[in-house]
Amino acid sequence: MTSIRAIKGFKDILPGETELWQSIEQTATIVLGAFGFREIRLPILEKTELFARSIGEATDIVEKEMYTFTDRSGDLLTMRPEATAAVVRAYLQHKIYAQDPVQKYYTIGPMFRRERPQKGRYRQFYQINAEIFGVASPYADVQLIVILVELLGRLGVKDAKPHVNSLGCPACRPDFRRALLDFLASREDRLCSDCLRRRETNPLRILDCKVPRCRETSMDAPALEQFLCAECRTHFDTLQQALDELAIPYFIDKRLVRGLDYYSRTTFEIQTAALGAQSAVAGGGRYDGLVQTLGGPDIPATGFAIGFDRLAEIVAADRQATTAVPDVFIAALGAAAQARAFPWLTALNRDGIAADMLFEDKSLKSLMKRAGKLGARHVLIVGENELAQATGQLRNMATRDQVPIALNRAVAELTRHLADGT
Ligand code: AMP
Predict the structure, then answer these.
(1) Does 51 sit in the ligand 1 pocket, CB within 6 Å?
(2) Which pLDDT does position 59 carry in this prediction?
(3) Which residue range forms the structural domain that includes residue 381?
(4) What is the pLDDT of residue 92?
(5) Does residue 178 fall inside a structural domain?
(6) Spatial CA neighbour of 337 closest among 299, 298, 389, 377
(7) What pLDDT does 209 receive?
(8) Does ligand 1 come within 6 angstroms of the Cβ of 60?
(9) Same domain, 338 and 310
(10) 262 Cβ inside 6 Å of ligand 1
């Protein structure tokens, strides 16, 4: 019988990797905390309508990538493909805006999109999301970019560069949309079938189509920047001045548009060469219209999503895989020694000491082999002789030195020796 494997595009994160994931999460929590963000934890399942209404019916995500099903009572549910819509839902449902519209949240967890799996692209992937509600100022956008630069810097990612663009607002984007469609009208034969469809639904997305012929065709397309209204222009200028002032290098990328309909004004991505084709490790921007679209008051908002899997891949390339090494391995020979040693092991573990032991009757040779395989720093040898003399031997595996351990005070003596490093 063949064994069962995980679903295509779904992957396990194994010990050896999880240590890195934990350390990234800790760093992210510290940095976000320092910038005033608080954690929010949300369900993975939401009503399908939430994503259809917020992300937009005519986006790749909603059209073809969502894991949607009808549950036993007939409700149409979706495994969340992104976090922002659900954060806004919670912000509205609990009327948080009524107490104080200004809120800074972060959330970390899995997202689900049925995309074609490849390196750096999974069907269950993880994101670190940050959202700022109630602040219209470009400084909030800058703050998000600073957090990303700071976090990636602390994690040792060297070439992370913010790409920024402005998507305008409902006042000025229609002019650009028209200009773009005029430009494309005489070039229809050079667009892929997806882009031909996007002309009707989401023409901005034609600018970031990955098909080389489409890229070539849109190379000389008008830039959104030329169409910005006065408010959007000031917003974008202030953002750039603030980044200059902070000496954060960035690249103005006129092709940078986002797949989700609710973005407005600032949009940004952090790219790194380390990722090859899937070069974006994080993306985000302003979504001033979303709170209202989801039935709330007119409250501006801005946020980002870091691709946790991709971030872990970049950081892992620079770091050695970690293993959990016991400080002490108890080589207990025979049933009597095991019965005596098990409470010591438990007491050490409870005290937070990495101690290990094999619960099997094995020879000293195979117990030492096991200790060597685990990379144990010390081995406590307890056989029949040691029990009779009430004294075990603690061997330092690096120096091969041995010290006696009084077995009636085994835990205290072990703790002292391990602390001394003897
Ligand atoms: P998005 O929510 O599409 O703006 O994506 C934000 C970030 O999440 C991207 O920059 C990627 O790093 C990451 N990401 C998006 N989709 C996937 C996926 N299918 N697999 C792994 N990471 C992803």
Answers:
(1) no
(2) 74
(3) 328-420
(4) 98
(5) no
(6) 389
(7) 83
(8) no
(9) no
(10) no
φ, ψ at 77 (rounded to 5°): -120, 155
Q: What is the pLDDT of residue 277?
A: 65
> What residue has token string 């079938």?
193
Q: Which residue is it, tokens 């092991």?
A: 345
Find the 160 Cα to ligand 1 centroid distance in Å.
Answer: 16
113 lines ligand 1 (CB under 6 A): yes
Is ligand 1 within 6 A of the CB of residue 307?
Answer: yes
Any atom of ligand 1 within 6 Å of the Cβ of 128:
no
Q: Determine which residue's CA is closest to atom 20 belonging to ligand 1.
A: 121
The pLDDT value recorded for residue 103 is 98
Which residues are bridge partners to 78 per DSSP?
46, 68
Residue 299, domain CATH: 3.30.930.10
Does residue 312 sit in the same domain as residue 335? no
Chain mean position to CA 57: 26
The verdict on residue 283 lying in a domain is yes
**pTM of this structure:** 0.90
Selection from 243, 245, 244, 251 nearest residue 271 by Cα: 251
Q: Are residues 337 and 265 in the same domain?
A: no
Going by C-beta distance under 8 Å and a sequence separation of 6 or more, which residues neighbour residue 275?
120, 281, 310, 313, 314
- Same-domain status, 290 and 336: no
CA 119 to chain CA centroid, nearest Å: 16
What pLDDT sits at residue 55?
81
DSSP 121: B
Same domain, 313 and 333: no
Could you tell me whether strands 391-396 and 402-406 are parallel, antiparallel, or unpaired per DSSP bridges?
antiparallel
Strand-pairing partners, residue 402, are 395
List the one residue out of 338, 404, 397, 336 whose CA is nearest residue 369.
Answer: 397
- Please tell me the distance between residue 308's alpha carbon and the centre of ligand 1 in angstroms: 8
Residue-level pLDDT at 278: 63
| Cα three-residue angle 39-45-46, rounded to 5 degrees | 90
Identify the CA nearest to 411 among candidates 383, 385, 380. 380
The verdict on the CB of residue 82 being under 6 Å from ligand 1 is yes
Q: How far is the CA of 329 from the centre of ligand 1 (A)?
A: 43
Q: Name the DSSP class of 117.
A: P
Q: Which amino acid is at 182?
A: D
Residues of the chain with pLDDT under 50: none
Q: Among the atoms of ligand 1, which is closest to the Cα of residue 259?
A: 3
